[in-house]
Amino acid sequence: MKEYFPTIPKVKYEGSASNQPFAFKYYNPDEIICGKPMREHLKFALSYWHTLCGDGTDMFGRGTADKSFGEKDPMEIYRQKAYAAFELMDKLDIDYFCFHDRDIAPEGNTLKETNQNLTEITELIENLMKEHHKKVLWGTANCFNHPRYMHGAGTSPNADVFAFAAAQIKKALETTVKLGGKGYVFWGGREGYETLLNTDMKAEQDHMAFLMRLAVDYGRSIGFDGDFYVEPKPKEPTKHQYDFDAATVLGFLRKYGLDQDFKLNIEANHATLAGHTFQHELAIARINDAFGSIDANQGDLLLGWDTDQFPTNVYETALCMLEVLKAGGFTNGGLNFDAKTRRGSFTPEDIALSYIAGMDSFALGLRIAVKLMEDGRLEKFVKERYNSFESGIGAKISNQTATMEELEEYAISLGEVSTNISGKQEYLESIINSVMFG
Ligand code: XUL
Ligand code: CO
Fold first, then answer.
1. What is the pLDDT of residues 325-374, one digit of tens each?
2. Nearest CA, atom 7, ligand 1
3. 58 pairs with which residues across the strands?
4. What are the tens digits of pLDDT across the range 156-209?
5. Gap between the Cα atoms of 273 and 406, Å rounded
6. Crossing angle (nearest 10°) for helices 377-385 and 425-437
7. Interval between CA 187 and ligand 1 midpoint (Å)
8. Closest-CA residue to 226 (of 194, 180, 267, 269)
9. pTM strictly above 0.85
10. pLDDT tens sequence across 65-108
11. Residue 331 neighbours by CB distance under 10 Å
12. 187 lines ligand 1 (CB under 6 A)
């Protein structure tokens, strides 16, 4: 059988002392941590688009990596991509993958032809999944690349475009169900506006919600029993995206009665573009029972766009995994590396080294998060910080029986607040360092 990445060996756990580049230093897939194997805590997924399609093209230059696998015919190229994807997942010990419809099969001249292409490659992928024991984390439709989506898809001012988007999502849902995916993502690439001077924001949002309702109803009717996700992102490609951040999306879902079917897919770099920390977005999802899945990457805080870098900042991965543990772990979701190698990291080996770096960073993050929980000082501090709500007037506030009159009377009787205690931010940050570095 043809080998697509002959210079990449099967990557195994060797421990932190290893200096072998193609080895995991911290990710030991079958090691049991808090009652379950690391692979189940982390549920790593390969992103088909970056890994098998992204060629390093940027606004100033053409691709630096060839992902055509020596083929010319579009269908043949995509068949090779599929074989290559499964070889990579095997070598990197990755159990899941995520895809857009257009990542796995090429567009034809008509929608009918495009759908036929997709059906054909889906069958190949289904067989490869069985052979290699791999699973779909989530599927989605690419409703942003084709020129017809210049003004958006579900939010386009053109009803014909809406119909095209619906048709595309219908087929993407069928594909996801056929491949046994437990997640389906809506990411609003171009679902937003460039200027309000030409935009009926209410109509656009009503249409988008209707499209999501149609997708839910259709998905459930064909047996999709997984989670629908919205992936918040504030901007890029549009100036303003309607799925701006976790809180905005929750407001939208509730307004349109979609909150029972949708959870959130939180992406690190999207959080920072919205001016939030990754931890903030995850916490918003968790406290609203909307924690679903994660697009694992990191941005460059000096840049104002989505750089989709492989995550290597362990402080961030630790705080992320702390949120995941607090949320009770993943159910249908997981950690999808929505990340690409830099334009200058153009070799096949770079792909493997980047995944290893990302997986090890999250494995370290998990190990640290567990230690932070076992250490207990952070949790204890936060609990104690609010203990004024456990008795007296505080208990009446927390069980919501206090009245305005009573609170006024109480405040007057106090004279002044004399019990504020320090927030000890610096001390708490030093606890993280001591847990991380011993
Ligand atoms: C774009 C992005 C997408 C979604 C899926 O910023 O994150 O790749 O994850 O459409
Ligand atoms: Co993403």
1. 999 999 999 999 999 999 999 999 999 999 999 999 999 999 999 999 99
2. 338
3. 61
4. 999 999 999 999 999 999 999 999 999 999 999 999 999 999 999 999 999 999
5. 44
6. 160
7. 6
8. 180
9. yes
10. 999 999 999 999 999 999 999 999 999 999 999 999 999 999 99
11. 15
12. yes
CA distances from 328 to 45, 227, 324, 331, 333 (A): 19, 16, 6, 9, 12
What's the per-residue H, E or C state across 118-146?
Answer: HHHHHHHHHHHHHHHCCEEEEEECCCCCC
Q: Is the CB of 46 under 6 A from ligand 1?
A: no
Per-residue model confidence (pLDDT) at position 429: 98
CB 226 within 8 A of CB 183: yes
What is the number of the ligand closest to the CA of 296? 2
Virtual CA dihedral for 172, 178, 179, 183, nearest 10 degrees? Answer: 60
The pLDDT value recorded for residue 23 is 98
pLDDT at position 213 over 90: yes
Mean pLDDT, the chain, whole residue set = 98
Atom of ligand 1 nearest to the CA of 144: 10
Dist CA 112 CA 194 (whole Å): 31
- Flag whether pLDDT at 1 surpasses 90: no
- Per cent of the chain over pLDDT 90 is 99
Q: Is the CB of 340 under 6 A from ligand 1?
A: no
Would you say the CB of residue 101 lies under 6 angstroms from ligand 1?
A: no
Pocket lining: 267 vs ligand 1, CB cutoff 6 Å: yes
- Taken as a whole, the chain contains a residue count of 438
Q: What is the pLDDT of residue 85?
A: 98
The minimum-distance atom of ligand 1 relative to the CA of 336 is 9
Beta-carbon contacts of residue 233 (< 8 Å; ≥ 6 apart): 187, 188, 241, 243, 244, 267, 270, 273, 274, 306
Catalytic positions are 100, 103
- What is the position in ligand 1's atom list of the atom closest to the CA of 265? 9
Residue nearest to atom 10 of ligand 1 (CA): 187
Beta bridge mates, 32: 37
> Do 3 and 87 meet the contact criterion of CB atoms below 8 Å apart?
yes
* Nearest-angstrom CA–CA distance, 188 and 325: 28
Summarize pLDDT for 256-308 with one digit per residue, the tens: 999 999 999 999 999 999 999 999 999 999 999 999 999 999 999 999 999 99
CA 189 – ligand 1 centroid, Å: 8
Strand (E) positions, 187-261? Answer: 192-193, 227-230, 240-241
The response to whether residue 191 sits with its C-beta less than 6 Å from ligand 1 reads no
Residue at 313: amino acid letter:
N
Give pLDDT, residue 274. Answer: 98
